[in-house]
Amino acid sequence: MDIERIMNDLEKKHPGEMEYHQAVREVLESIEEVYDENPQFESAGILDRVIEPDRIFTFKVPWADDNGNVQVNLGYRVQFNNAIGPYKGGLRFHPSVNLSILKFLGFEQVFKNSLTTLPMGGGKGGSDFNPKGKSNAEIMRFCQSFMLELWQFIGPDTDVPAGDIGVGGREIGFLYGMYKKLKREHTGVLTGKGINWGGSLIRPEATGFGAVYFVKEMLTSKGESIDGKTFALSGFGNVAWGAATKINQLGGKVLTISGPDGYIYDPDGISGEKIEYMLELRASNEDIVKPYSYEFPGAKFFQGKRPWEVKCDIALPCATENELGKEDAQNLINNGCTCVAEGANMPSTPEAIEMFQEAKVLFAPGKAVNAGGVATSGLEMSQNAMKLGWPSEEVDERLHHIMISIHETCMEHGREDDGYVNYVKGANIAGFLKVANAMLDQGVI
Length: 445
Ligand code: NDP
Hints:
The protein is an alpha/beta fold. Among the domains are: 137 residues, 3-Layer(aba) Sandwich (Rossmann fold); 165 residues, NAD(P)-binding Rossmann-like Domain (Rossmann fold).
């Protein structure tokens, strides 16, 4: 495999799209050996095809704010690869959204979905709309306008969007309402739906729960458990909330959460009503996690800082991409952190990952650790197709089994000669092989 040739071509075709380039390079470096051992991939041009999205839709989203002023945002849907199932992946509403971010997320999603054992291709979408400070009515009008364009590109067997940053149950409700009206059908076209109208139990918790199940397997492989361990978490959104809930259930202690403005350190542990308060904080659309320290006086707020300077056993970045760099990695290693699992997508920079691996810290990438979210979306699709709903115990058990299976797959493909498991390599190889073989079977299309 000529990685530099492929990267040069990609950079020429998609100039300046750093996040996209970063995600592709990581996968290429991990799969190089396996790819070269299978010349049939090269003859079928698999790499050149798998790194390009199948298609991208871009559209304008006009809407009126509460003062009657017209606002215009950009909307996107990137349909990346449907070799193993309909396109599947979330929608992100955040001012930072652009095509580089969505291509990186869509590319990652292809391999993540492949790891889940469920038949789902990969896609991603969203808008540069900023939900912060917007009223409910403004969010509804925006979602309705967004769906007025998106509906023609999606469908329960074509492309099934879900939530991501800035898109939770409320937004999925508004989007689904408009889709239903336009299409005149009640199908599983979005996941993350409300429980009374086709949603699955455990879906809101699934990404965080799945991440902690994965950590449990990583620790078990070393003869350890979550009980009594301390955790540093970043973010305070959906993933951080689910992870904090499950960590507490398994006897761990959550010391931090964070927002773009800084982090909260709570030495008493973030549990019980404090976890409920995270939901309130998130729903408030406020910028800061600072109110937490007023509400719970034992906690301290560190303005402009990241939680990776806190002494902890396990770090779980659950906020956003590239939020954990070289210095953060050094702090964690110096403070005796032994396990880092990515709840968010690509939160660690390549330099940070290299440092964890060199220090033999257990390190697992987002596409394995946070795959429980999309896996449970897959379970929601199955329930919709069968027109029934499973009890929460059943969904949770299936989620748990899927996470155990992803962990085993990573071990199988990522174990190195000295016994250290390179989870990045394991996840990328396993995710890639399934997609590449499906593409081979289906011919050049
Ligand atoms: P949410 O919008 O619910 O939460 C994201 C959180 O991160 C918010 O608390 C946000 O604060 C905070 N945040 C944003 N930027 C920063 C920053 N620079 N530093 C610290 N905190 C920051 O999103 P999710 O929890 O759904 O998603 C979090 C991550 O998990 C993303 O990478 C997403 O792609 C990934 N993911 C999500 C899945 C899901 O099921 N929801 C599934 C798989 C992956 P603020 O709102 O103030 O910006």
